[in-house]
Design goal:
Number of strands: 13
CATH architecture of the largest domain: 3-Layer(aba) Sandwich
Number of helices: 14
Helix content: 40-55%
Bound molecules: pyridoxal-5'-phosphate
CATH class of the largest domain: Alpha Beta
Largest sheet: 8 strands, mixed
Structural class: alpha/beta
Strand order of the largest sheet: 2-9-8-7-6-3-4-5
Radius of gyration: 21 Å
CATH superfamily of the largest domain: Type I PLP-dependent aspartate aminotransferase-like (Major domain)
Number of domains: 2
Length: 387
């Protein structure tokens, strides 16, 4: 068997070694608490499940969906964007379902990049921003997210040559893994940059509904001119506890969406219509209260984690959004990975090394808040005692 060269270009899974260590610890009887993965521990909200149960029982959902999506799904998205973000969308041409944001983000690389092209990728960032370009035979140029700029990329630092070759730019706010919310003026600067260099901006919106302290996250598409240069990929996975459902959509530039549609008609057969109907239920205003209650839970967990880290001498900034706490590695460790290994070894708690999300993540570690309060408390207490 000879796998493709492009597949062998993907770096080895950075958590592979960690997973082996976790398995060894568990086998040795250690009570391992994993704060590594961002996957909500709370069930999908009841009205969404109820709508899906009805939809699954309806034989009209059992046939092939269309890649374009149900009209009611696209209209629900347009209504949600108007209500939530003040963004007007044409449900006919500016919305399409996706089988999760991951599928969509990957396929945009396939739809827009040739071998000589590059994608500008936020670093640290979601691994598909670099894995996608690599797998389609193109390449990526990392845009370091600068802590002193509020984790914005410095667009002036992008070379003229890279800007000229770039056809895509991947951005994500509220940001995984840093927890940063979009710095003032960044989206405006991105629109101007994309116009100047003819780049399609892909704003990965996985966390706009998961925010704290009164912060309300905007849509990239609310920025003047954004729809001319960009798309937004909205995922229901995190905000609606729907990671297993694979429910997302792409909105924004109609020409870009038409290319994505053209590509997908050669790859998959669309999003199960019962899942689209679950998405319609999720985006209904009646579910806002469930989302708000969930955010109260994450806020409590965020504070519990940040208080414990501070007590352990870690200088952490509580995030205004996302389900992650991004904290600097204490002095005395040669790398984030070395610190995370030490934490696992000494306490049985799994936290993610920042370097796993890109070179600029080095020096930080990430704690996911998707663990029940008592377990989270137990985990941070063990880390606090480690000092
Ligand atoms: C979780 C996550 C995704 C994946 O979303 P799916 O819709 O579940 O594929 C995409 N981007 C970021 C930044 C994420 O954290």
């Amino acid at each position: 068997m000879r796998p493709s060269k492009r597949l062998s270009l993907i770096p080895p899974y950075l958590f592979a070694q960690l997973e082996r260590k976790i398995a060894d610890k568990k086998a040795a009887g250690v009570d391992v608490i994993s704060l590594g993965i961002g996957d909500p521990d709370t069930p999908t909200y009841p009205p969404i499940v109820a709508a899906a149960q009805t939809a699954v029982a309806d034989p009209s959902t059992h046939q092939y969906p269309s890649n374009r999506g149900r009209t009611d799904f696209r209209e629900a998205v347009a209504a949600f964007y108007a209500r939530r973000f003040g963004v007007t969308l044409d449900a006919e041409t500016e919305v399409m379902p996706a089988i999760g944001a991951k599928e969509c983000i990957f396929n945009l690389s396939l739809a827009f990049l040739d071998p000589e092209d590059v994608a500008l990728a936020s670093d640290p960032g979601y691994p598909v921003y670099t894995g996608g370009p690599t797998l389609v035979g193109a390449s990526s140029v990392l845009m370091p997210l600068v802590p002193s700029l509020g984790f914005a990329p410095d667009l002036d630092a992008i070379s003229a040559e890279d800007a000229a070759r770039a056809k895509l730019m991947f951005l994500n706010y509220p940001n995984n893994p840093t927890g940063a919310v979009v710095p003032d003026g960044l989206f405006e600067r991105v629109v101007a940059f994309a116009r100047e260099h003819d780049i399609l901006v892909v704003h990965d919106n996985a966390y706009s509904e998961t925010t704290y302290d009164g912060y309300v996250a905007p849509s990239f598409l609310a920025t003047p001119g954004a729809k001319e240069v960009g798309v937004e990929v909205f995922s229901l996975s995190k905000g609606y506890n729907m990671t297993g459902w694979r429910c997302a959509f792409i909105t924004g530039n109609a020409d870009a969406i038409a290319q994505y549609w053209r590509l997908k008609s050669n790859i998959d057969s669309g999003l199960f219509e019962a899942v689209q109907l679950a998405g319609v239920a999720a985006l209904d205003p009646s579910v806002d209260a469930e989302v708000a209650a969930m955010n109260d839970v994450y806020k409590r967990r965020r504070d519990l984690v940040c208080d414990a880290l501070r007590a352990a001498g870690v200088d952490v900034t509580p995030p205004k959004g996302t389900i992650y706490v991004w904290a600097p590695v204490p002095a005395g460790y040669e790398s984030a990975a070395a610190y995370c290994e030490h934490v696992l070894e000494e306490t049985g708690v799994v936290v993610s090394p920042g370097g796993a999300y890109g070179a600029s993540g080095e020096g930080f570690f990430r704690i996911s808040l998707t663990t029940p309060d008592e377990r989270l408390l137990e985990a941070v207490e063990r880390i606090r005692q480690l000092g």
